[in-house]
Design goal:
The protein has 248 residues and is an all-alpha fold. 77% of the residues lie in helices and 0% in strands. The protein is built from ten helices and no strands. The relative contact order is 0.12.
Length: 248
C-alpha cells in the first residue's frame, strides 16, 4: 500500500495535534515513525501487528535492564526507545487503514506494561551492581544496592496506581451527567522528562551511558510517587467539591 509522508502527517495532525506538547515525541519520534510506517504499509503489515511488535520490543528492552551490565543496559534503553517509536508507527498505520478496538486496547496496555516493567527490571539490574554512585551513601545508612529492587518496585507501583486511579475516575464521571474531568496540572517540564510519551526512555539512555541509572531510578521513584499522591489528592478533592455542589 503506497502512502506519502505528507498524507501520514496530514492524518496525524487532524487527530493528534495536541501531541505537540510532548517535545521529544513530536519533533523526533513522530518524524521517524512516518518513514517506518511507509515501510510497514508497503508490505501491508497491520497496525495491530506493529502494536504487538512494539510491546514485544519494549518487554525485551525492559528485561535486558535486569541483567545489570553497562552495555546491555544501554541496549535495553535503546530498545525501549525503539518500542515507543513503533508505538507512534502503529497509530500512523491505523489512521491510514482503520483503527480497531483491539488495537486501541493493546496500545493503551502496552505503554503501561513497558513503563512498569522497565522500572521493576531496572531495580533488579541495579541490585547486583557494586559500582553505583550512591553505594557509599547506602552503606553509611546500613543499606546496600539491593534496596533498588524495592525502589524499582514502588516506582512501578506508583505509576500503575496513578494510571488506574485516573482511568477509574474517568469511568465514574462518565456515569454522572454534567461532570467534567479534572483540570490538567501544569507539569510540562517533569512530564517531558519522565513521562512515557515524553523523553522517559531517552533520558534513561543518557543516564545509562553516564552509568548513573541509580540516580535515574531514584528520580523516577520520587517523581512518580509525588504524582500518585497528587493524583489521589486531586481526585478526592474534586469528588468532595462535586458532593458539596450536589448537596447544596
Amino acid at each position: 500500500m503506497k502512502v506519502s509522508i505528507d498524507e501520514l502527517k496530514k492524518r496525524y495532525l487532524e487527530t493528534k495535534a495536541n501531541e505537540k506538547g510532548w517535545i521529544w515525541t513530536y519533533y523526533v519520534r513522530r518524524p521517524i515513525s512516518y518513514y517506518l510506517a511507509i515501510f510497514f504499509l508497503y508490505f501491508d503489515i497491520s497496525a495491530n501487528k506493529v502494536t504487538l511488535l512494539f510491546i514485544f520490543t519494549g518487554i525485551i528492552g525492559s528485561l535486558l535492564l535486569a541483567v545489570g551490565d553497562y552495555t546491555i543496559s544501554i541496549s535495553g534503553a535503546l530498545l525501549i526507545e525503539l518500542a515507543i517509536i513503533l508505538d507512534c508507527v502503529d497509530g500512523n498505520i491505523a489512521r491510514v487503514k482503520r483503527p480497531t478496538v483491539l488495537g486501541n486496547t493493546l496500545d493503551t496496555w502496552g505503554g503501561e506494561i513497558i513503563l512498569v516493567l522497565s522500572m521493576s527490571m531496572l531495580g533488579i539490574g541495579l541490585s547486583v551492581k557494586d559500582d553505583l554512585l550512591t553505594i557509599t551513601i547506602l552503606r553509611e545508612w546500613g543499606l546496600d544496592s539491593s534496596i533498588y529492587v524495592y525502589i524499582g518496585f514502588f516506582a512501578a507501583l506508583s505509576t500503575l496506581g496513578a494510571w488506574a486511579a485516573k482511568n477509574n475516575w474517568q469511568v465514574i464521571i462518565k456515569r454522572i451527567d454534567g461532570l467534567i474531568s479534572m483540570p490538567r496540572r501544569n507539569t510540562f517540564i517533569i512530564e517531558n522528562i519522565f513521562h512515557y510519551s515524553g523523553a522517559y526512555s531517552i533520558t534513561m539512555l543518557v543516564f545509562a551511558v553516564l552509568n548513573l541509572l541509580d540516580i535515574f531510578l531514584s528520580l523516577v521513584f520520587i517523581v512518580y510517587t509525588i504524582n500518585l499522591g497528587a493524583t489521589l489528592f486531586s481526585i478526592v478533592k474534586r469528588a468532595r467539591e462535586l458532593d458539596n455542589n450536589y448537596g447544596s
